[in-house]
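Entry 14. Ran structure prediction on the chain below.
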Amino acid sequence: MKASILPLTLIGLSCLPLTLASAEDKKAEFTMTTETPADVKAAPEDAEKTKSGLASKVLKPGTGTEKPAAADTVTVHYSGWTTDGKLFDSSVQRGQPTSFPLNGVIKGWTEGLQLMTAGEIRRFWIPADLAYGENPGGGRPGGTLVFDVELISIKAAPKPPPVPADVKEAPADAEKTASGLASKVIEKGKGETKPKATDNVSVHYTGWTTDGQMFDSSVVRGEAATFPLNRVIPGWSEGVQLMVEGEKRRFWIPAELAYGKNPPPGAPAGTLVFDVELLKIVK
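Output, structure tokens:
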């Protein structure tokens, strides 16, 4: 009897690494599909959970240690289901990954993807209050949503420009117009052509309130803005007509030339300060 125990023990021990390796191999080989997950109804016991109620589980490990910040742009593949197993959206099905700023999507995505590294595939169970709510409109799915997400790449957001030292008020050497607009050339441009009010212009800009709070920036978004010059606040319409291509100028725009002292919801109030770079005049 003793002789027969030894081979069995050795066989048992030799099987253990093979079993573990097989499990790891399966995890490493996981690929994105549109097939409804077996655990779509509820997060399993071994899922990670955050204070917000977000649950997730790594399906395939990523590479490296870098994780995206909320302001970064990510490129992902994903599939999404309601808890009854209905597929409602999938970049995998479309055959085209999607890119977006991470702070521009539902709260569950903003929080969840910051847990991931490039190459990782993770399953999320996102409660309604971190998604679209229980009874959303516009064809959006309600209740808890389940997503498989593959983080393909991370594009770090440009750092916000520093707050100008003279943001509180225009310095004594600033140019002033009859309307009350003040400005100062930061970097000279090229040529002599200036835009007309009816022209389209392409610009980069950053805007602050006089207490130094940045409220908007094409620089941070990493994408220039193009618009008709007669379709923006009066301070912009007047001020950008003073510029030539390649010029950078700082503007102190009084409330009456901006959004007023009591602006509509979401718009900044009072005097506003903008750094504007005129990239191109589009006739």
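Residues 175-282 form a domain with the Chitinase A; domain 3 fold (CATH 3.10.50.40). Will compare against last week's run tomorrow.
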